[in-house]
Amino acid sequence: MLLVVDVGNTNIVLGVYEGDSLLYDWRIATYKDKTSDEYGLLFEQIFKYHGLCPKDVKDVIISSVVPTLMHTLSAMSIKYFSSEPIIVGPGVKTGMNIKYDNPKEVGADRIVNAVAGYEKYGGPLIIVDFGTAITFCAISKEGEYLGGAITPGIRISSEALFSRTAKLPKVEILKPQCIIAKNTVNSIQAGLVYGYIGLVDYIIKRMMEEMKEEEGEVKTVVGTGGFSSLIASESKYINKIDKLLTLEGLRIIYERNK
Questions:
Q1: What is the mean pLDDT of residues 227-232?
Q2: Which end of the chain, N or C, is less packed with Cβ atoms under 10 Å?
Q3: 109 part of the active site
Q4: How far from 124 is each of 112, 150, 169, 173, 241, CA to CA, in Å?
């Protein structure tokens, strides 16, 4: 079996593949201060709960946007899964030409998403990842990573509003029935959800316009990440939801490096 691990600022998403089939996937909170043993014991508990044996894992691949956890999770992989992990980064074969000014600046999660998106849907396409930050990635018809945009995620905005105002409450991020809300909680929810729908669609629209001359019409826009379903339900442009895109990308990159 193959263990794939995607480390985000808020959550760690992990999954177990047997060949091309994803057997299980899980989402746990990211704690930057946990030790390799704490993560190892947590992973072991998750495996045992589902009747899996850590010894059946032959290989591990990790992508991370949290540099402080890289050594921790690498040490965990070696100790608890007897596997030196593949770390997505410079030197790892992705099969994708990166057109960034400095390719090393592109987050591992964005590259992994791009690899999976192009493999599954072809190009040109746009991928929107609704994580702690929302990332927009443009991939050419030839499978080149063209670049993109980054904006604070919806939860960051919600927490900033709560922490920087004296009277506004912290709210659950849900879509209210109407945008002209009749109470404070619904007013905040309307501003957050519908505001982000507008933000997301405008950025996608501009990206499509910039890509059209060189790449032709972009027909595929993929949403992934925690809040993808919430925003995509109202988006004019997002036409595919693929919440496990990053895990699939890790599997594909593993195959290319095996």
A1: 89
A2: C
A3: yes
A4: 16, 19, 42, 32, 17
Full-model pTM: 0.91
Q: Could you report the per-residue pLDDT of 127-164, keeping only the tens digit for each?
A: 999 999 999 999 999 999 999 999 999 999 999 999 99
Mind listing the pLDDT tens digit for each residue in 29-52?
Answer: 999 999 999 999 999 999 999 999
Class for the domain spanning 2-87: alpha beta
Position 98 scores a pLDDT of 93
CA 15 to chain centroid: 13
Choose which CATH entry (3.30.559.10, 3.40.50.2300, 3.40.50.300, 3.30.420.40) describes domain 122-244.
Answer: 3.30.420.40
C-alpha 6/C-alpha 109 separation (Å) is 7
DSSP three-state, residue 188: helix
Catalytic residue among 109, 129, 201, 242: 109
CB environment 37-69: b (16+ within 10 A), e (fewer): eebbebbbebbeeeebebeebebbbbbbbeeeb
Joined tokens for residue 195: 């505001």
